[in-house]
Amino acid sequence: xxxxxxxxxxxxxxxxxxxxxELAQFRGRNLVLYFYVRDDTPGCTAEAIEFSELEKEFAKxxxxxxxxxxxxxxKHGEFRDKHGIGIRLLADKDETTxxxxxxxxxKEVDGVKRRSATRSTFIxxxxxxxxxxxxxxxxxxxxxxxxxxxxxxx
Length: 154
Fold this sequence. Notes:
By secondary structure, the protein is an alpha/beta fold. It has helices spanning about 40-55, 55-60, 75-85, 95-100, 140-150; strands at about 10-15, 20, 30-35, 65-70, 90, 105-110, 110-115, 120-125, 130-135. The strands form three sheets. A five-stranded mixed sheet has the order 5-4-3-8-9. Strands 1-2 form a two-stranded antiparallel sheet. Strand 6 and strand 7 form a beta hairpin. The chain is globular, with a radius of gyration of 14 Å. It starts with 11 loop residues before the first strand and ends with a helix.
C-alpha cells in the first residue's frame, strides 16, 4: 500500500473520450486521483456527482480531480453523460494503474473469489508526491472531506 511521502506511480489511461491521460500532465497542479468500483452503482454514482459538484472549488485550489475504474471508455462516456459528471473518468481495463496504486483486493462473494477495487483516494501534490493515501473510504461525503484535505496542503 502506498503512503504519504511516496512518489505517485506514473499512469497512462484513456478517458471517456479516449484521450490519453498521464500523471505528468498534472505537474504544477495538485491531483485528486480516486479509484472506484464500477460505473452506475449507487455509491460510485454519488461519489462522482459529489466530486463534480465541487469541481470549481478544487479548481480554485489548482487541483484536478480524476476518477479511475476498470470500466471501458464507452461505459465511462455513458455514465458521465447520464449523470452530468464533469470530472474526467479513466479506463483501467488492464488493471495496471489499479495495481500500481494497490487498490485491488480479492473478495469472496457467494463462494466465488473475485478481484475488486477498494474505494481509495490519493491526493498528489504539485511535485508528484502523495500527500494523503486513503484506502477503503465511504462514498457519500467523501468529496467534501478530500476538498478540506486539499485546502490544508501547504
